Amino acid sequence: MNEHSLFPAQRYPDNRRGDLARPWLVADIGGTNARFGWLAEGADTVQHVLTLSVADHADPAAAVRSYLAQLATTLGTEAVMPKAAALAVATAVGQDQITLTNSGWAFSRRALQRDLGLDGLLVLNDFEALALSLPRLGPAQVRPITAEGTTGAPAGSVNGGLAVIGPGTGLGVAGLLPTPHGWVAVPGEGGHATLAASDDFEAALLAAVRCDFPHVSAERLLSGIGLPVLHGAVARVLGQPGGPGTLLTAGDIVERGLAGTDAACQRSLDSFCALLGSFAGNVALVLGARGGVYIGGGIVPRLGETFFSSRFRERFEAKGRFQAYLQAVPTYLITDTLAALSGAALALEQHGQ
Predict the structure, then answer these.
(1) Average pLDDT over all residues of the chain
(2) Omega within 30 of 0 (cis) for the link into 23
C-alpha cells in the first residue's frame, strides 16, 4: 500500500506515534451495523470482513470479541488478537469518551484499548475514514451520477478538494482537501446543518416538520431515521393521513415508492433525491470540492435506477450564478460498501509512519 504514503500523518489523542505491529483490526461502526476486517502481516487489502448487528452487542468491546471468536474459527486457531485497531465511528470524536449518535453504544477509548490489550487504538469519525479512501477508489467501486452538461470526469481529474455525503442510519459528511504535503481529511457534523427549501413544496414540507421538531437538519430528513419523518410531512402536505403516529419505516417507504403502489411514498423518494442533490451542491460549494462529490451510505444504493433518473443532479447544479461551476464537478455513488475499512487501515498506516 505504498500509495498511501502521500497522506500526511495525523494526530490521534491517547496514542504515541510509532511503528504499529500487525495484525490490525479495522472497523466501520454505524448506527445499525458494525463491519470488521483484518490485516495480517504482509496483507495489502482488508480481509475476513464480517458485519455484525449493533443492537445484538452491548458495546464495541463485545462486538470485537464476537468478531475475533468467529475469525479464530475461520482461521482454525484457538484465538487471534490484534496488535492495533482503528475504529471508524458514526459520531464526533476527539475526547476519551465516545458516544455514538444513533445507537446506544458508548465507550472510553482508553478503557477499550486496555481491555482489548492493544498496543495502539485509533478512533476516527466514520466519514473521515471514508474520505481517506476516496482518491484510491477505482471505476469498479463507484458509478458516475451524470446529467446533460456534466463532464462525468474520473475521480481526481479536476483540481480541488473532494467531499463525501452518506445517507445511512444518520447523515455523514466529510471533506478531503489537497495540501502541499498531500491530502488531509476534514471530518465534521455537516449532517446537522439546517436544511433549506428550494421551492414552495419543500418549504411546505419543512414547515410541516417544524410542527414536531424546532430544528430541521439535513439528517432529520435525509437518512434512515429521517425518511419516515419526510414521508409524514409529504403526507400532511398532500392532505393524506400522516404524522408521528402513522409513520412507515424507511424500508416500507422505499419498497412502496419503488413499486409505485403509494403516491406519498413515491413523492417522498422524489423529494429525498432532490433535497439530497441540493444539500450536496451546498457541500461542494462550502468545501470547494471541485474534484468530486461522492455519495455513500446504505440508502441511495437501494433506490437503484430511480436515483439515477431523479432530480439529484439537476438540483446539485441549481445554484444560480454558480451553476456552471457545479456543472464541472463530477458526482459519484460509492458502490463498494467496504471503502471505509480501507480508510481506517490507511489511518493506522500513516499513524505509524
Answers:
(1) 88
(2) yes
